[in-house]
Design brief:
The chain contains 13 helices and 3 strands, in the order H-H-E-E-E-H-H-H-H-H-H-H-H-H-H-H. The protein is about 55% helix and about 5% strand. A 3-stranded antiparallel beta sheet has the order 1-2-3, with no helix packed on it. It starts with 5 loop residues before the first helix and ends with a helix. It has a domain at about 5-85. It is mainly alpha-helical and about 350 residues long. Helix 3 runs antiparallel to helix 4, helix 3 (about 100-110) runs parallel beside helix 5 and helix 6 (about 175-190) packs across helix 9 (about 220-245). Strand 1 and strand 2 (about 60-65) form a beta hairpin.
Length: about 350
C-alpha cells in the first residue's frame, strides 16, 4: 500500500502533478481523430492548476493561495487565504419570438432528426414552413443578409428559414444523407429551397480558393476558427454529393468542382508555403472521390479525374515545394478505395 505524508499532499497542492495517458488510449484517440477528420493539437499531459475553486452552490469561496505561513501558529502549518467571490447570477435567456422562434424550433427538429424519427421531424418542419408560406411579407429584404434573392413577391420569412435550414444541413457531415433527403422533400414543396442552391455553391467555390493556413502558435483563436471553417467546408462537400445523388445538383457540376480542386493542387504544389492548403484541398478531393465515384464511372470526365489521382499518388514530397507525405498517402487511400470497391 502506498502512503502519503502531509508534506506529499502540500507538494501536490503547491506544484500540481502530471498524468500521461497510456499509449493504447492515445492510439484510440488518434484513430478517432483520423476517422472523424478532426485537425486539432493534442496534449497528453494534464497539469493540475494551483488555484482551486470549490462548489459555488455550497460556499461561494475561492482558495487563492496555499503557501502563506502563519507565524503566530506552528511554523509548519499552512494558512489558506480565502476571498469572497461575487454571488452567482443566473444566466438570462432571451425569449425568441416571431421568425427567430420558428427558426430555432426548426433547428431543434433538425438536431433531433434520425432515421427512426425522420417522418415525425419532417412533418413538424413542413408544418412550420407551410405556416410561413401562407403569410406573404411585404417588407424589404435585408440587402446584407439576402443580396442574391430580392423579388418583392417572395415570402421574406421563408427565405430566412430556407437559408437557415441550408446552413444547418450543410454543416453536419454525419447526418448529411438524412438532411439531403429532407432537402429534396422541401424542394418538392417549396421552390425557394431550389433557388438558393446556386448561391451556396458559389460561396463554396470561393471558400476553396480562400483556404489558408493559420499557425496555432501565432494566433490560437484564429487557428481554431480556421479549423471550424475547414470542417464546415468538408461537411458542405459531403452535402453537395448527397444532393447530387438526389438529382438536385447536376453530376457535371460536381465533376467540375473536383477538377477545379485538382487544378488548384497542381498549381500549389510548386509554390512555396502552400503545403497546408494542398493538404486541405486533398481532404475534400478524398470526400468527393470516395462518396461519388460510383456515380461517375460511365462519364468521360471521370477518366481524367482518376488519372489525376494516380498522378498525385506517385509524387515525391522532396521533389515539390508544397506537397506532404500526408497528402500523397491520401491519394493512395483513394486508389485503395477504388480497388476494394471495383471502381474503374
Amino acid at each position: 500500500m502506498v502512503y502519503y505524508s502531509l508534506e506529499d499532499y502540500n507538494n501536490i497542492i503547491s506544484s500540481g502533478y502530471d498524468y500521461v495517458l497510456p499509449e493504447n488510449v492515445i492510439s484510440i484517440i488518434n484513430n478517432l481523430t483520423t476517422e472523424l477528420g478532426i485537425i486539432e493539437t493534442t496534449n497528453t499531459q494534464v497539469e493540475k492548476k494551483k488555484t482551486y475553486e470549490n462548489d459555488r452552490n455550497t460556499r461561494d469561496f475561492k482558495h487563492r493561495d496555499s503557501n502563506n505561513f502563519n507565524t503566530k501558529r506552528n511554523k509548519n502549518a499552512i494558512e489558506p487565504s480565502w476571498e469572497k467571490l461575487p454571488s452567482h447570477r443566473p444566466t438570462k435567456i432571451e425569449k425568441k419570438e416571431g421568425i427567430e422562434k420558428t427558426i430555432n424550433d426548426i433547428r431543434t427538429c433538425l438536431n433531433k432528426i434520425s432515421n427512426k424519427n425522420y417522418d415525425i421531424q419532417r412533418d413538424t418542419i413542413l408544418n412550420y414552413i407551410t405556416e410561413l408560406d401562407n403569410v406573404v411579407k411585404t417588407s424589404t429584404i435585408d440587402e446584407e443578409e439576402q443580396p442574391e434573392i430580392k423579388p418583392p413577391e417572395e415570402n421574406i420569412e421563408l427565405i430566412k428559414v430556407a437559408n437557415a435550414i441550408f446552413d444547418i444541413a450543410s454543416n453536419n457531415k454525419f447526418y448529411s444523407e438524412i438532411y439531403a433527403n429532407l432537402y429534396k422533400e422541401l424542394i418538392d414543396r417549396f421552390e425557394i429551397f431550389n433557388k438558393i442552391i446556386s448561391k451556396y455553391l458559389d460561396k463554396y467555390l470561393d471558400s476553396i480558393k480562400q483556404i489558408k493556413y493559420v499557425d496555432s502558435n501565432e494566433d490560437y483563436n484564429k487557428y481554431c476558427e480556421n479549423n471550424k471553417l475547414n470542417d464546415k467546408r468538408k461537411a458542405m462537400s459531403a452535402f453537395i454529393i448527397n444532393l447530387m445523388k438526389k438529382q438536385i445538383i447536376e453530376k457535371e457540376k460536381v465533376l467540375d468542382i473536383i477538377l477545379m480542386l485538382q487544378n488548384l493542387v497542381f498549381e500549389y504544389i510548386d509554390v512555396d508555403n502552400k503545403t497546408n492548403e494542398v493538404d486541405e484541398i486533398t481532404e475534400n478531393i478524398f470526400i468527393f472521390s470516395t462518396m461519388s465515384a460510383t456515380e461517375f464511372m460511365n462519364m468521360s470526365e471521370w477518366d481524367n479525374i482518376k488519372s489525376n489521382i494516380v498522378k498525385c499518388s506517385q509524387y515525391k514530397a522532396k521533389e515539390h515545394k508544397s506537397i506532404s507525405s500526408r497528402a500523397i498517402f491520401k491519394y493512395m487511400d483513394i486508389l485503395d478505395f477504388f480497388k476494394k470497391n471495383n471502381i474503374q
